[in-house]
């Protein structure tokens, strides 16, 4: 019987140290809900400092309810020469709503000498008193032993004294951190074994690894196999330098390879969608080759593979992809696609036969090959279905559109768009200005269409997202534009893909208005988003709805 | 004293199974030369089949001379029911120039039953006779035991019989393959230990891992630590599904962490440039977070880190980046202090006083508040520093630029840009078409500037990224554009931020060209490409230029 392993997610704090990683307070709250729905035990939210972003985050988190996850605030031991009860940061942690506080402290003599210039004995006092202060203030404390493995290699007995100081002070758990990512699995494994024995079971331990040697996941597993009962990591392994240990792969391995029941089967199925939604929030393209959850993780090419898979999937697969919410690329995708199409048609109140369904699937396949991606563009997909079902009326006939952006010597940028369209046989020519070409194009199109369909003027573009596909082709790459629109009741997503960003945006704009005019609310009365969220539990479906809008 | 470890690269064969991986015969020859210069011992070139591409590859390889690496041809044991001496594929291998042949055979009963439908005894005969045939034909044979670890878990004694059959037939080395990537380091380690003991040192062993559990590197190291003396992998871990074990990280770990002298110090310095040039040949954007060789692998943000690094780099780095041809990067961000700015200035050979440094920091803070982010835009930051240091010359004076994008009734999109600039008192007016407005603007600007600064026409935009900030404002949100440029030796990043995407792109374009014209190489070099150019032989750096142009 394996011990229970606690999953500790550091995406919102350590993950944000990664290059280009940034989330608004609102986005962080959404991430927290996705982590909660996945079954993460502890979510490290960051330091509740006085900067507006952090203030808002902790204010929001205090109001949110989570099914399972606990929120941990993160900080440091008191600063040198300042008594804990006078340390400003410790007071901020004490005043924070979070019942759980993780504080990090020094363990490595090199850092004591070279970085913080703190005497070894004084450091022990700082560790003890900081923890004692927080406990007096009613907090539960997790102690992160920074640079532990470097420290242990350098001076094992002093490193152990730091851990014992934290344990005696009342920390409920001591986390061994490979802060510089300098350790390998066999080193982590033997050190953890010795530490667990050395602490004589007086306090629980945890592990916090980084991926500098491309061993972050293996290191975390080695620690668990040697007695650590909490694993810290980040979703998709985001983090500074080469990233933190990837909690997604750690979960996959613990549950499917090592027999630890860290999640329920229902939660495990969320692993793939959760990993992808968090990439979307970070505006990072999901890694197609990511273990367990990547699009190619269970992809097979070659006749022998396919034949083997048909005979017995275990011949060429280390596990069933469905267990982690992923799918086999060759065989299952088509069926899944067909199922999705039929479901969507029904959801939109459309009646399409098998032939039409097959045509839609072919069309979708071609479009996806060109860079379309309908997961976040249900409205565009529904318009495809309407065309096949013969329930599509074009909103207008395009004669032409044109955008002009110019900058003069004074640096002033001006931007206008002109559209020429026919509606019901009448020609409409409109020109509008905007602070960007797409904004101007949108204004011009709406001013014309609004005369015939006044209610469409209420449609608001709530979100505009651009991703360059094949980024390494420089400015000649293909552009994917995702637009989310709302009429105040429903929100829907549309997509455009073209080498030219304006042309791609135009496609998404037109789909947005055509959907608004033609699509009737689905039986559930909540538009396509709800369908997107199908298969996820209610609590999370709200989050999915929200996050897809980002 | 550690045993000698043989480095076996499978990039040209197994690596090509990865999604979208493709190289011409000519490119494969270039890769082979880069691998040879790095110090790889054996290069697996593929199966010398009769298709034109493979024919050309092997014809070329036969004519090339390599300093150190041996070429291995790759194939399978004879097909069921066909005597080895009549097996067509084995004859092709026998006729190939390569002195070394790697053949893969079955070991796992599940595959014998479900896939190839071969009797267990017959399989042993196929292994023995195939190897004996190739040895009679004068080849040295490496035997790849496919699915070995699954087989060993399923029926250890039969798996061992397969290995003994290969050894008795005269294979010089037996490679244990985790073909489905289903094993973890502790399983690989113990199995390898038992196999090495079981074979009684009669034959050398090797390891071939995949990354399905995100443990490909750790698995390979576990095998070496338990007696395997050859490691197979691919550069940057390319390969099917989640990829093969990453030979780049394996080399970094063996040499810098485990004390195996797999390369000379001079060869090890090539690790980063070689990893990058192979990405370029594959037309893949190098992973900035890749262990050992990524742009961020030794990146630091935050004042405390930078201060620590200055006191003693080992406080925050697991090794000296220069050993593997990488370099320390100091990411400038809100977290960063003046230390970082001073380091940056020094790195750019600029002398700025404290007052100037303070001004730059204020400026950076204001810009970051507006959405700028200099972590991925060193060149824009350096230009900022140059302006403060009085070492900045504008490349031109802008009179105006204009982009026009239009679509007609037929759906045809056309796009042009016109720029009017003054260079040295002369007015240049240029109009260019492009498949997008930014592409057209770039072409127009370059055609004008190229007349005065011809070398700037060689500057390539290798990466163009767009992020909509504050996405909830729909198309009126602020746009951040990041551009990576390269002159074939160096790459640099520039940034633009504006409500208008074209205006933001223009800022980044201009910075890119001004940096190319003005920035002198920093003492420490400015990125992998520079060290590539410095560190590699002329022949190779010629390749770089070519590949960046592709």
Automatic annotation (TrEMBL), chains A, B:
Molecular function terms from GO: acyltransferase activity
EC number(s) reported in the record: 2.3.3.21
Region (Disordered): 519-550
PROSITE patterns named in the record: AIPM_HOMOCIT_SYNTH_1 (PS00815), PYR_CT (PS50991)
Gene3D superfamilies: 1.10.238.260, 3.30.160.270, Aldolase class I (3.20.20.70)
Nuclease is among the record's keywords: no
UniProt keyword list: Acyltransferase, Amino-acid biosynthesis, Branched-chain amino acid biosynthesis, Isoleucine biosynthesis, Transferase
Pathway assigned to this chain's UniProt record: Amino-acid biosynthesis; L-isoleucine biosynthesis; 2-oxobutanoate from pyruvate: step 1/3
Domain named Pyruvate carboxyltransferase: residues: 5-272
Keyword Acyltransferase: yes
InterPro entries linked to this entry: 2-isopropylmalate_synth_dimer, AIPM/Hcit_synth_CS, Aldolase_TIM, Citramal_synthase, LeuA/HCS_post-cat, LeuA_allosteric_dom_sf, PYR_CT
Reaction(s) this enzyme catalyzes, per UniProt: pyruvate + acetyl-CoA + H2O = (3R)-citramalate + CoA + H(+)
EC class (word): transferase
Family under the similarity heading: Belongs to the alpha-IPM synthase/homocitrate synthase family.
Name of the protein described by the UniProt record: Citramalate synthase
Annotated source species: Paraconexibacter antarcticus
Gene responsible for this protein: cimA
